[in-house]
Amino acid sequence: MKEPHKKYTPDAYGKVAVVMGGSSAERNISLESGQAVYQALLRKGVNAHAMDANDDVLFELKDGGFDRVFLALHGRGGEDGRMQGALDILKIPYTGSGVLGSALAMDKCRAKIMWQSLSLPTPAFIELSAGSNWQQVGKELGLPLMVKPVHEGSSLGASKVTRVEDIEYAWRMAARFDPRVMAERWIEGREYTAPLLGERVLPLIRLETPREFYDYQAKYVDDTTRYICPCGLTAKQEEEFGGLSLQAFAALGASGWGRIDLMLDRQEQPWLIEANTIPGMTSHSLVPMAAKQSGMGFDDLVVEILNTSMH
Fold first, then answer.
1. What are the DSSP calls for the chain, one per residue?
2. Other C-beta atoms lying within 10 Å of the C-beta of residue 258
3. Which of 119, 125, 169, 307 has minimal Cβ neighbours within 10 Å of its Cβ?
4. Do 263 and 270 form a contact (C-beta atoms < 8 A)?
């Protein structure tokens, strides 16, 4: 992968499809991200075309003479390696991670297994099923705990559980989004995200919400959510957590750009929560916020991400 900060003329990108929407639970957020990216590329003079990822999207890409794709898809079908594999077959370059990195990052359980295998800190977890012993789950992970779908983004279907007798209900709620559901040890502390661009870590952001955790409502609806950047960590801590995030991202085979979400517990110990290979690019989104803090405007950020397709 070429470094994203290499300069290209707008013509060098050729005809670019900004693929958005799709059929995942995050469709509406993806449409918002895609439109923002599309408008930015037009402002930069790039020959960009907005495209909804409907059933015919691959035929449209193949027959439309597109030179590359800016992927603005969130969730399953677009962020999990399937679209990446199809584009590989069509020999159309695209932004961000390839098949393996996308698939592993989308599967929260397997991502955590990879991190555990490398002794990277991530909270203990158990995959749940109808046959789970709820008492045992509560005993093993302790309470409170987090229950969430294995393959879903934007905290959809996720809930905090404080009583053993509520674990089964939380599992049923999460299972509406994904047949695979996990319970994870709850980390009490501060929440951060590390936006990644190439080999660079953009300024970390601290997330604060009056809600129980940074859920869908806090991410996309509430005005009470606070995004703190600079995040208040010492320079040494920020460098340390940034390095951990790069290591965690690379461990999954992810590349190009993305985000690692972390918790910092009461003992100042960082915990890896999950990886995002196609983070949001909306007005509420975190990567553009971090880029702005580092002196990079939205349009320049979009071009740098597009550069990750210039193999």
1. ---TT----GGGG-EEEEEE--SSTTHHHHHHHHHHHHHHHHHTT-EEEEEE--TTHHHHHHHTT-SEEEE---STTTSSSHHHHHHHHHT--BSS--HHHHHHHH-HHHHHHHHHHTT-----EEEE-TT--HHHHHHHH-SSEEEEETT--TTTT-EEE-SGGGHHHHHHHHHTT-S-EEEEE---EEEEEEEEETTEEPPPEEEE-SSSSS-HHHHHT-S--EEESS-S--HHHHHHHHHHHHHHHHHTT--SEEEEEEEEETTS-EEEEEEESS---STT-HHHHHHHHTT--HHHHHHHHHHTT--
2. 25
3. 119
4. yes
The Cα 61–Cα 296 span in angstroms is: 30
* pTM of the predicted protein model: 0.94
As a whole number, mean pLDDT of residues 190-217 equals 91
pLDDT tens for each residue of 265-281: 999 999 999 999 999 99
Q: CA–CA separation, 161 vs 146, rounded Å? A: 6
As a whole number, the mean pLDDT across the chain is: 94
Q: For tokens 């953009």, what's the residue? A: 202
Domains and CATH numbers, the chain: 10-95 (3.40.50.20), 105-120+189-300 (3.30.470.20), 125-185 (3.30.1490.20)
- pLDDT one-digit tens code per residue, 134-190: 999 999 999 999 999 999 776 788 999 999 999 999 999 999 999 999 999 999 999
Average pLDDT over residues 94-115: 97
* Residues with catalytic roles: 26, 154, 220, 259, 261, 274, 276, 280
**Amino acid at position 12, single letter:** A
